[in-house]
Specification:
Blueprint (H helix, E strand, L loop, with lengths): L23 E10 L2 E8 L7 E7 L34 E2 L5 E2 L5 H4 L5
Antiparallel strand pairs: 1-2, 2-3, 4-5
Length: 114
């Protein structure tokens, strides 16, 4: 099964009603542009029945397309920086003054640290 160009999976989300917490159903949607969609959502709880306007859009690429559309211009996401552990900036010392070697984490075990 192939998806339509403007169906970017947002309808698969399980949004919940902000009033009663039940799931919302998409009653209608329309593509404003190939990258932006507007929707009408309705609470599935008959005792609530609230309706909402919503929108979803594609903001950036994470990986390139194998068949890019030249009319679509999207920035690529910046590469994620590796986060340092909050407690790894200072060497640890015992009461005797001896330095404690850092604990091996998964990166060290896998040989990913320098």
């Amino acid at each position: 099964m192939t998806s339509q160009p403007n169906d970017f999976g947002a309808d698969k989300e399980r949004a919940k009603c902000p009033h009663c917490g039940h799931h919302l159903a998409t009653r209608s949607s329309r593509s404003v542009t190939p990258l932006f969609k507007q929707k009408v959502l309705q609470c599935r709880n008959p005792a609530c029945g609230a309706s909402f306007g919503a929108s979803s859009g594609i903001t950036h690429q994470i990986s390139p397309s194998a068949s890019p559309d030249p009319s679509v211009e999207l920035p690529f996401a910046a590469p994620r920086a590796r986060r340092a552990h909050a407690n790894d900036d200072q060497p640890k010392r015992l009461e005797s003054g001896a330095e404690v070697p850092p604990a091996l984490n998964d990166d060290a075990v896998a040989g990913l640290t320098g």
